[in-house]
Amino acid sequence: MTRILRRWLAPTLATTLLTIATPSYAQGPPSTPPTAVMALVNIKADVDRGQLLKLLPDEVRAALRLYLDRKILHWYSRGAGRGPVLILNCSTGAEAKALMDTLPLTKAGLTNHEFTPCPRTIRGPEQGDDRG
Q1: Cut 0.85: pTM above it
Q2: pLDDT of 29 higher than 70
């Protein structure tokens, strides 16, 4: 009888205790509300490069202004002239779209955007960056 208890009851009891002690994620882990939006900026395929180059200095100045105003947290470039990836200080895609609609290339209809809300996992302005 003691052998049966050791062989069957102990593992069953251990499994039961572990199951009770482990949180259940039947509905998924707790979600973190989005605190940033990733914006993929895509230059349209049929864009005249001359028109693009004409507006590019204004686009850079406007993006730099948004960066200094802490609206753009980070930006990254993608190869082959596909446009940048921006991490925006917004909580919704609609807010990010409104921000991107202020840029010259968007106003001229030369870009498309894809927005993805995401939790901020990179250092943002309220965590002590060194902008002016």
Answers
A1: no
A2: no
